[in-house]
Amino acid sequence: MGNVNRMKSSLANSEWAIEARGLIKHFGDNRAVDGVDLNVRAGTIYGVLGPNGAGKTTTIRMLATLLRADAGSARIFGYDIVKDPHIVRQLIGVTGQYASVDESLSATENLIIFSRLLGLGRTEARNKAAELLEEFGLSEAAKRPLKNFSGGMRRRLDLAASLIAQPPLIFLDEPTTGLDPRTRNQMWDTIRRLVDTGSTVLLTTQYLQEVDELADRLAVIDHGRVVAEGTVDELKASVGTSSLHLNIQNPQEIIVAREIVEQILKVKTTVTQDIGKITAPMSNVDAVTDLLIALRQKDIQLDEFSVQKPTLDEVFLTITGNEVKEDVPKDFKGSEQVEGERV
Length: 343
Ligand SMILES: Nc1ncnc2c1ncn2[C@@H]1O[C@H](COP(=O)(O)OP(=O)(O)O)[C@@H](O)[C@H]1O
Ligand SMILES: [Mg+2]
Known about the structure:
Elements: H1 2-10, E1 16-27, E2 30-41, E3 45-49, H2 56-63, E4 71-76, E5 79-80, H3 85-91, E6 92-94, H4 107-117, H5 122-135, H6 151-162, E7 169-173, H7 181-196, E8 200-205, H8 208-214, E9 217-222, E10 225-230, H9 232-238, E11 242-248, H10 254-265, E12 270-272, E13 277-282, H11 287-297, E14 302-308, H12 312-320, H13 336-342
Helix pairs in contact: 4-5, 10-11
Magnesium ion is lined by residues 56-57, 173-174.
């Protein structure tokens, strides 16, 4: 542990926790990760937001030296993941890697074993286990064997285990997916505390709200590519301060309706295929009056009309120009790609 501690203290001056360039990973014909660049400043929470299958886990596995990249390079606190994987592994923690803890042992016993493996003394390990179980609200369940734990409790124990050594860089792969709101809030508090006490966190998520709550910056990832990068505010600004939702009665008029919206609001619109809803960013709510008049003049009947704060899903739709499941050309920009495809 002496070496690691020396290494950790020398990281204090390191500006970047992660610098990744052009990471690529194929699985057969599938380009799971297709040229990802990431810069994560030390001491921050960085969000990687994307739908299922976007390439989030594959990216983390490469950065954590669990999977070899086909191309590209990355440094963790300045250490190359290919040339110095042993050092890199000392500097990171990945949730999910403790999935194979012993089911017949209690939570306390599992944490003590991990602590001992990481070099803590007997008393130190016992104290650390108790402290972490308390922090994660697992004290009451601490003596129960793991096989009686719920999914949420396992997730918390998993995070607790990865924090025994509180590594300088922590990868949290969808830490709150499927958790109830209370547990999720506890998780958020813990994540904030990690950064307050000096760690850097890279967090993947499918929820805009989560990056909104936690992240200093984020990358939006889709089909293995970073399609947007910046602060949450920058991202939201790119889709307007509010968003307009318009359902028209006659789906055949959707092209005309979109043209009118785009002309009057001077923005790009997107169309949700299944329900024929038009969505557009709005910065000037006053323009709504002009828009309604123009639609009336063209005799376009509305089913529904509303102005709302943009959700992360809308931000995502605006940026990627698509619903997330489909295979889209790799060279599209913004929402333009929707033009030819959908309408
Ligand atoms: N071990 C693997 N073998 C084959 N394909 C994989 C493997 N891991 C991931 N993939 C594929 O790579 C793509 C990205 O997956 P993943 O990184 O898990 O996305 P995410 O974590 O964003 O949901 C998906 O199409 C997935 O099916
Ligand atoms: Mg994943």
